[in-house]
Amino acid sequence: MNNRRDAVSVQRPKGSLLNDKDFRAVLFQILILAGVVAVGWYLVNNTLSNLEQRKIASGYSFLGRESGFGIGESLIASSAADTYARAIVVGILNTLLVAIIGIVLSTILGTIIGIARLSSNWLVAKLASIYVETLRNIPLLLQLFFWYTIIGEALPPVRQAIEIIPGAVFLSQKGLRVPHIVEHAIHGWMWIAFFAGVAATFVWRRMAAKHQEATGQMRPVFLPTLGFLFGLPLLVWLVAGAPLQWDLPKLGGFNFNGGGAVSPELMSLTFGLVLYTAAFIAENVRAGILAVPKGQWEAAGALGVTRGTILRLIVLPQALRVIIPPITSQYLNLTKNSSLAVAIGFPDLVSILNTTMNQTGQAVEGVSLIMAAYLTVSLSISAFMNWYNKRIALIER
């Protein structure tokens, strides 16, 4: 009986390969891969042919040429005599600056708004709901134009600048002027000490976790972290003689001289991105808190724990496993939305590369650099958030 069944299974009808599920799966993958390669080859070949017909040189050799344009706002020294490569680096740093500031501030504001939406106070909850529903449904570009117009129209001119701190901090149509620390050679060593403190903090936290698992006793973490991160740079600064010199902004003519400046474009971009993204983060936080069973609140309340302590130590740590995945998407959206800075004149990566492409005609190379930069930053943020999500995940025993 078994031999007859084996014989029947061996003798397959003609064309049975197409009826084989495994064979069809492999065949379809080969066909899809071949189609992707064919489309890619066509696009590349067509692009190279068009560039050759228009006598446009391809390649990235233009990065070593002098850019010929200045950048109004940069974290590092820049001038029109710099190369295109340095100008692009300035644009990347400006984009990272906006992304980092936006992520930090939108997280803080979004968490506050999300908790406020669940408040037992009717007015607080309604105001938070109005904030979320309003800002989420207005296009971000319009919000950026709004803030840029407000700063340009509502704030006073330079000669009538608002002195937030007399003689030190001024606010006007030209933006925010603040004191600036004069650069010193010891600052580089302070940064080295800071990163050494980051590594020491990581090692100490791992040692504290292993000690707690082995003995059940907790070692202090917060104060040693402060000591590593800020104590080491402060110690280096004190050993060097505590050099500190402030460059204060002073009114001269139609603008301020000296000090540090936060341009109206950066202020508008930051306000728009933070307020817009915080509205989405607030909903993520609210959903995460609601996902925690009410029994957690009731059990902790029965022990006499205050609602603030319950939220901070019991509910939010459990809600993070629900909050982190969608909030990662909001961080990525904020970083990519920063490209709208070109609409209000802030020199981010897109703005600088647009100028570069207009001058050199290297549109393909410029777009590829933009794509590579945003892809790298987005993947880095995603990788970090995924790592953090695994760190805080609840481990069942």
Describe the protein.
Its main location: membrane. Keywords: Amino-acid transport, Cell membrane, Membrane, Transmembrane, Transmembrane helix, Transport. Belongs to the binding-protein-dependent transport system permease family. HisMQ subfamily. This is Amino acid ABC transporter permease. InterPro entries: AA_ABC_transptr_permease_3TM, ArtM/GltK/GlnP/TcyL/YhdX-like, MetI-like, MetI-like_sf. It is a single chain. This protein has 397 residues and is an alpha+beta fold. Among the domains are: 38 residues; 188 residues, MetI-like fold, CATH 1.10.3720.10. It is 66% helix and 6% strand. It is built from twelve helices and eight strands. The strands form three sheets. It has a four-stranded antiparallel sheet with strand order 1-2-3-8. A hairpin with a 2-residue loop joins β6 and β7. α8 crosses α10 and α11 packs antiparallel against α12. The longest helix is centred in the first third of the chain and has 34 residues. The chain is globular. The model has no long low-confidence stretch (mean pLDDT 85).
